[in-house]
Amino acid sequence: MSTSMATTAPAKPPAPPRQCCRYLLLPSTGHRRSVAAWSAKKKNPWLDPFDDGPDEEFDYQGMFSGGKQEEDPRPPEDPENPYGFLRFPQGYNPELDSLASKVRGDVRRACCVVSGGVYENVLFFPVVQMLKDRYPGVLVDVVASARGKQVYEMCKNVRYANVYDPDDDWPEPAEYTHMLGVLKNRYYDLIISTRLAGIGHALFLFMSSARDKVGYVYPNVNSVGAGLFLNEMFKAPTNNLADGGYKDMLEWIGRPAKNVPQQPTQPLRVSISKKLRAYVEDKYSRAGVEKGKYVVIHGIASDSVANMKSRGDDDCLLPLGHWAQIAKEISSGDRGLKPLFVIPHEKHRDEIEEEVGDDTSILFITTPGQLTCLINDSAGVVATNTAAVQLANARDKPCVALFSSAEKARLFLPYVEGKSSCTVISSATGNLIDIDLNAVKNVVKDLEPAPSFALAQK
């Protein structure tokens, strides 16, 4: 009887875990050397002379070593936020500009980077007005220097005025990045600049992330590469844009498009608040003059940093001796007018009292808004090529403008032709100090006190 028996093969021992090759056989010697010992060898100093291997004192397990970090808690929503009350998921950026708005080219938020000081910022007012006329409801912000920001207390069309000097070629890195962050977080549709742009300033406008970047470029080789970062650029006629205003930019903003006619350029206008007017009225009353019975004198030569000189015209201030003769002619006669000297620094008060007389009316003005109120309540203005000339024409006050040459008068006052309220007197030699004082005296004789009823209407 045969019996079949199932035999079971003996179990094989488990295979040892597979290991990587830990040793390297050097053919030259036949000795085994550790790869770790081989890799610990100092690197070639010629490849990186500053690499001395891993730093034993450095903590390689600090922040961000574990990958993505937890996000900051979401800030509370504010219904009164000027940028809108939106609900969007955490981690997503809100899209404020719709596709239809982009196709139409609408501008709802605009930023103006204005170069220069008081004079240049006053000339920029028509550009802001053109933006408001072309895009009703647009919110306009301004970036200007500390002195330029003071101008926009007279402009009701500006929402925010930010202090940043666009003319600083070497700004502080913290200030530079902070201003870029402010511009990026406001989601501007349009950013325009009056600083002559090279590649550096063009990059500043480009990094603002605005939809349209518009600005002037240098009229020379300094403009190389700037146009690559701008949607629209204008080649400046000269290195001083304040010569004739911002004509190219005004024409571009008011251009006809999509059944919208060409927008006409509005004349320069400035507004005055009631609170500021009351403050200035009290100020000049304490200086010894009455409303409508004084003539503003502006443009005294000064060695102070805060002088009245405008950019682009170095010869625009007269010495005190010339002004003393003009002031004497203003106060002569039976018209009842008194000259009022506006000084840029208190140190000039003693000089004027010694040259003109102790009973001379002198006023120290600190802001362009106060100067505008002072001009508005006066009988007229006698000034050189300073901001006072532009402000007097903006308020339609009688003005006698003194220039070093007829060419500069045409450049800085291109709109004055046919305007009876402004009289231009220029020097025949090209130097302001050689101006004909007899001609100035004959013109200031025609200034009359302002009627009281006309002042009450303003």
TrEMBL record:
GO BP: photosynthetic electron transport in photosystem I
Bias kind Basic and acidic residues: ranges: 68-77
Chain spans, region Disordered: 58-83
SUPFAM superfamilies hit by this protein: UDP-Glycosyltransferase/glycogen phosphorylase
InterPro entries: PNSB1
GO cellular component: chloroplast; NAD(P)H dehydrogenase complex (plastoquinone)
PANTHER family on file: PHOTOSYNTHETIC NDH SUBUNIT OF SUBCOMPLEX B 1, CHLOROPLASTIC
Protein name per Swiss-Prot or TrEMBL: Photosynthetic NDH subunit of subcomplex B 1, chloroplastic
